[in-house]
Fold this protein.
Amino acid sequence: MTYEYLLSEKKGPAMVLTINREEARNAINPAVTAELIDGVRVAKEDEEVRCIVITGAGDRAFCAGGDLGGGQGMEGGALGQHFQRALFSELFLDLRSCGKPVIARVNGHALGGGFGLALACDLIVASDAAEFGTPEINIGLWPYVITAVIQRNVPNKVALEIMMLGKRMLAGEAERWGFVNRVVPAENLDTETDAVVNELASKSPVIMRLGKDSFYAASDMDISSALKYLENQLSVGLQAEDVAEGIAAFFQKRKPEWKGR
């Protein structure tokens, strides 16, 4: 696929989506968001793609958040701008429901909306030079939309400190708080990301999809509803051919040959 602001490339079992606005620190505007939505949906439908990687061009920024220049590229008056901003929420929901693991390859600053984008991914692999934060408060704004993903990934007191103080957090500290999975030297970022991709791709795609869907669905339920839902999902999952194959491979001491069904 050819986009204006997004590079889309198959790399082994992964579809790599790169925000290609290095001169603007890969800031987000409505066009970037729309292209990311399309890229994720294309990857979702491609059976050869087992994992999605989202990153930013260059080595300075994963994504510096919303593009504050030129009204963030918005048109159509207040109501039109409202609907354009809603695309960002749509992207977050697509990342959650795409049925495939999504890795944020954080190569630099992940600020504001960029922080939210990273958190909306399933896993985060970060350079040790990466920084995370919500500087909106410093210019009289609040990170409203991304609050939803911050609350689901970051302890409340830490989240409020980040948002209320406009604090930036280095990758190592973010890893200690549990919302970054792996931190590696910048020169090892690609190697580590590829290792995670290959490990994810070695799992059953159908069980990965059912498992990811159930994780996010249950996380938004009360405990009683979650347990009942997960009981039903277990019964559904046990019908997959890949379950029988995985058990057989375990006892035969061989690698499973997944059918994806």
